[in-house]
Amino acid sequence: MRKKYLMTPGPTPIPPEVLLEMAKPILHHRTPQYQAIFKEVNEGLKYVFQTSNDIVTLASSGTGAMEASIVNLLSKGDKAIVIRGGKFGERFAEICSAYGVEVIPIDIPEGNAPQAPIVRDTLAKNPKAKALYVNLCETSSGSVYDIKSIAEITKKTSTVLVVDAISGLGADDIQTDNWGVDIVVSGSQKGLMMPPGLAFLAISQKAWKAMESSTLPKYYFDLKKAKKALDKTDTPFTPAVSLVIGLREALRMIKEETAEKMFARHKKLADATRESVKALGLELFSKSPSNAVTAVKVPAGIDGEKLVKNLRDVHGVTIAGGQDELKGKIFRVAHLGFMEKFDVITAISAIEIGLKELGYKFELGSGVKVAEKMLAEG
Ligand SMILES: *Cc1c(COP(=O)(O)O)cnc(C)c1O
Predict the structure, then answer these.
(1) Nearest CA residue ID for atom 5, ligand 1
(2) How many whole angstroms from its chain centre is CA 120?
(3) Model confidence pLDDT, tens digit, residues 194-245
(4) Which sequence positions carry the modification called N6-(pyridoxal phosphate)lysine (predicted)?
(5) Whether the CB of 187 sits within 6 Å of ligand 1
């Protein structure tokens, strides 16, 4: 017997109530029964995305929505500004390049957040840039970006602001309408407590208008087709019925908790995780740490890949390592979605045990002690 603990920034654990919903017999999607569910899900999504804009739901992983935000807005030869501070900023740039869009990169060192002046300058130098692509949480470095200040800049221009909130949604605040974010992209397997397979785009009027002139090729991800169907509470193709039914339950749970308390919970878990790893003598990787995931520098003399592997294969606790150049140099522990205090305490305990086994010198329990102190009440 080995109990498993999933503590990665996607996929994340799924509440039993949601799992049971998804086990129910399939419905046909062109029925009033399914339509009622889809309607409720659309309302629930608007609550989480903090918007009254249309939200398109696609049957794909999050990257499908990233691609949709490019092929529906842009045309070959267009310019797009892309903030690249890690793997997921790079992904936007890669998709742009694949479609012949000219990328104007704003490169920032991994673990840093983009500052408003450089965004303002780049936009001023490239007033023809049709869109600006940025992440809310750059999951690869555990960094949250200040979307509010970026939106203040794009709001006054014709440039469409597209934010990848795939991992950030639900953990790091994003006030789509209040801040003036044009497109917010997300996926199901992170803060929304669902399996992978659904992707979302919240789309403003400014973004819909900008889409009218786009000529990049698209078919399955044609958002105009999706919008036409959405206006009739329908989808152009067969939706992922069981996932949408599961999502209704997950969204009900979020509504019951309230968005305010959900953000407060993520902040509390993130704070406790950061302080606990610091108490172990470890350093955070990010200068702007996200409330979705904590990236931690692997201490000198310790093999970070071995730590992640041992925790998974010997102890049943799955955390994430570093990707690409950060392989072996950081580990990442998520406190995202269906998580509460004992999940953080378990994660810190597992990290302590794993580090001890690899010969790292520290007092066993010193991290857990901090986590328990910080999380005990509430
Ligand atoms: C997970 C993630 C993605 C990729 O999503 P997929 O569902 O794997 O396609 C993109 N961006 C960010 C910030 C992510 O965390």
Answers:
(1) 62
(2) 25
(3) 999 999 999 999 999 999 999 999 999 999 999 999 999 999 999 999 999 9
(4) 190
(5) yes
- For ligand 1, whether the C-beta of 185 sits within 6 Å is no
Candidate of 8, 66, 166 to mutate for ligand 1, largest count of ligand atoms within 8 Å of Cβ: 166
Cα(88) to ligand 1 centroid in Å equals: 7
Architecture in CATH of 5-10+259-376: Alpha-Beta Complex (3.90)
Find the angle CA(8)-CA(12)-CA(14) to the nearest 5 degrees.
Answer: 155
**88 Cβ below 6 A of ligand 1:** yes
pTM summary value? 0.98
**Longest Cα pair distance anywhere in the chain, in angstroms?**
62
The atom of ligand 1 lying closest to the CA of 196 is: 7
Percent of the chain with pLDDT over 90: 99
Q: Whole-angstrom Cα distance, residue 318 to residue 180?
A: 37
Q: Sketch the domain layout of the chain as residue ranges.
A: 5-10+259-376, 16-256
Beta-bridged to residue 138, according to DSSP, are: 143
User: Dihedral (C-alpha) 46, 49, 53, 56: value to the nearest 10 degrees?
Assistant: -80
Q: Tell how far the Cα of 62 is from the centroid of ligand 1, in angstroms.
A: 5
CATH of domain 16-256: 3.40.640.10
